[in-house]
Design goal:
Blueprint lengths: L2 E5 L3 H12 L3 E5 L11 E4 L2 E4 L9 H9 L10 E3 L2 E6 L5 E5 L2 H12 L3 H23 L6 H4 L2 H8 L10 H8 L3 H8 L20 H5 L4 E3 L5 H13 L2 E3 L4 E7 L2 E7 L2 E4 L2 E4 L3 H8 L7 H4 L6 E9 L9 E4 L4 H9 L10 E4 L14 E9 L7 H20 L7 E7 L1 H8 L16 H4 L11 E3 L10 H18 L1
Parallel strand pairs: 1-2, 1-13, 2-9, 6-15, 13-19
Antiparallel strand pairs: 3-4, 5-8, 6-7, 10-11, 11-12, 14-17, 14-18, 15-16, 16-17
Helix pairs in contact: 1-10, 1-17, 3-4, 4-6, 7-8
Length: 489
């Protein structure tokens, strides 16, 4: 059996470690930080607790699958609940809307609040599920970089239904042709941000993303999002995976074009197989010899990043839920600012996640923990100190307008995360949250493969490679990489 060294302990790296250990190999994971989890982090201050990264949990079965593969009961390690309310939406003109776990109820509420036809909305939600099933067979469950994928039965089914996927329309064009109210269009356009893209550029294929919430459900992990990596690390350790924390990888060792080890300040380690869960850009530019770099892949435009404020609030807001969106008045101008001007819009869309709505222990009694995310460009040398100051001011003014409050009276604890900090803490190039953007119709085909013949015995997992960013896709990347290893063995 082989020895396997993994660079990085994001969710994809942990999942790949579990899968390789279950195949009988000896696995060691190297992590530069003091705890595993990658972008899934934890912040505690003054009695408030915050998940620092992803805040929406969908497709929990992909996490459960790893425990089941190991013959374990997932509930002995990890628990979660389905949220009856998915998201609360707010516009400056006082239009408000709640979406619920039942697609029919959601369609009715949208129709009432936005003067749309309920049947049209319900049909859109169900069609998103049908399109997802086509795409998952073709793009999400296997490598796009081998011939057998393109000649399989699933591929034939995908080709027959390719006309349904909107490859030649943008997401915005598809939604504008379907719905009457610009607010409805804006609501569904926002799902482009789930992989750091622009709805005015990204193909309508990504309109499958609402399926994950409206048909499959939004969930909340007991103990918060941090419990996803924590539980998987417990499983990995039970299986025998070794974690070397606070040990940054300095070099992936190669002999010719064959990966054969990892070098850190602590020493040199020989491995039969090496995998990188780090962003592809630092993986190549810092860890691998220059002659092995795929220049075209590395030069693609980056996805968006984000500015996150963590605010301890000393009162409860009954009108807010676990997930909340305060929409910009001019969505197109906001995305132009991010992707064309590489700056922030002065009327940003504001996402507020309040885990203490479900987990009361996440804030003191009578208080709330607000995680505020604003989409931002990746770091390319902007004056972030000035941008953050202006962003904070604009966010507070927006919330004050919509809720009729003076928010600064209630902020008693505060911290923030910006593209610079995201980049330094997670080795994400420019702090881009999802690797490359998906702002063209060929983006799915242009993501880095999970295995390149140019570097033998080397596998790639995580949000910067196929099939993409976000917890479900990172877990899928580990599954695809493990499958490729078995095929290559």
């Amino acid at each position: 059996m082989s020895t396997v060294g993994i660079v990085g302990s994001g969710i994809g790296g942990i999942a790949f470690a579990i899968r390789m250990q279950l195949l009988g190999h000896t696995v060691t994971v190297f992590e530069a930080n003091e705890r595993p989890g990658g972008k899934l982090g934890l912040l505690e201050m003054q009695g408030y607790r915050f998940d620092t990264g992803p805040s929406l949990f969908t497709m929990p079965q992909l996490v459960d699958e790893l425990f089941q593969l190991a013959g374990k009961n997932p509930r002995d390690y990890f628990n979660y609940e389905r949220l009856p309310e998915i998201c609360s939406y707010f516009w400056d003109d006082q239009t408000r809307l709640k979406t619920l776990e039942d697609p029919g109820e959601t369609a009715s509420l949208m129709a009432e609040a936005l003067q749309e036809d309920a049947a049209t909305i319900y049909r859109y939600i169900k069609e998103a599920g049908e399109k997802y099933n086509i795409v998952s067979d073709l793009f999400l469950d296997d490598s796009l970089h081998k011939l057998s994928t393109w000649t399989s039965k699933q591929a034939m089914h995908g080709y027959a239904n390719l006309h349904k996927l909107g490859l030649f329309q943008t997401m915005h064009q598809a939604h504008k042709s379907k719905f009457k109210n610009p607010k409805t269009v804006q609501l569904f356009d926002r799902y482009a941000t789930y992989n750091g893209s622009d709805p005015y550029q990204t193909p309508a294929t990504l309109s499958i993303i609402p399926h994950l919430e409206y048909n499959l459900g939004a969930y909340f992990p007991k103990g918060g999002m941090i419990e996803i990596p924590n539980a998987l690390v417990r499983l990995a350790k039970d299986l025998g995976v070794q974690f070397r924390l606070n040990e940054a990888v300095e070099k992936i060792r190669t002999h010719g074009n064959v990966a054969n080890g990892i070098q850190t300040k602590m020493g040199v380690y020989d491995f039969d197989i090496v995998a990188s869960n780090a962003d592809i850009r630092p993986s190549y530019k810092q860890l691998l010899p220059e002659n092995l770099r795929p220049a075209k892949l590395l030069n693609q435009p980056k996805s968006s990043s984000g500015i996150i404020f963590y605010w301890g609030i000393n009162r409860v807001f009954e009108e807010l839920g676990v997930h909340n969106i305060f929409f910009s008045k001019d969505y197109q101008a906001e995305f132009k600012a991010i992707f064309e001007k590489e700056t922030l819009f002065d009327d940003p869309t504001v996402y507020i996640h309040i885990s203490s709505k479900v987990a009361k222990e996440d804030s003191p009694d009578g208080c709330e923990n607000w995680f505020i995310l604003i989409n931002a460009p990746a770091n390319s040398g902007q004056d972030w100190d000035a941008l953050i100051e202006a962003c904070r001011r604009n966010v507070i003014q927006k919330i004050n307008r919509v809720l009729g409050i003076n928010l600064e009276d209630y902020i008693v604890a505060e911290d923030y995360l910006d593209p610079r900090r995201i980049e330094s803490r997670t080795s994400s190039a420019g702090g881009a949250l999802y690797g490359n953007s998906s702002n063209n119709k060929f983006a799915a085909f242009l993501r880095h493969p999970n295995y390149r013949a140019a570097i033998k015995n080397m596998y790639w997992i995580g949000g910067s490679v196929h099939p993409g960013g976000g917890i479900p896709l990172c877990l899928s990347s580990a599954k695809i990489a493990a499958k490729l290893f078995q095929e290559n063995a």
